[in-house]
Amino acid sequence: MSDDIRLTKQTRRVLSAILERPFDRFSGAEISKATGLASGSLYPILMRLERAGWLHSEWEAGDPKALGRPRRRYYKLSADGARHCRQIASEFSPAGEGLVWA
Which InterPro entries match (predicted)? Predict the structure, then answer.
């Protein structure tokens, strides 16, 4: 797993959206809505974060026919991702409380 995640403005927006509810899982559509990022920008970021071990993802259970739609892929912050975010917060936030994404 790589620790070399470029914290671009878009990546910070994705992490901020996930950190609003760090124990929940989110579909790509939910993250897109929260960040305003289009899928062409969002999914490469999610893939990089997952490859680096910051996120875990899993497909929704169920048959698409029974669901009446394609299955969703859900993303969740990993323990490693939470650790990295805490480290980033301590580096960028004067009090080390919460992430400050200017």
Answer: Metal_resp_DNA-bind_regulator (IPR052509), Tscrpt_reg_PadR_N (IPR005149), WH-like_DNA-bd_sf (IPR036388), WH_DNA-bd_sf (IPR036390)
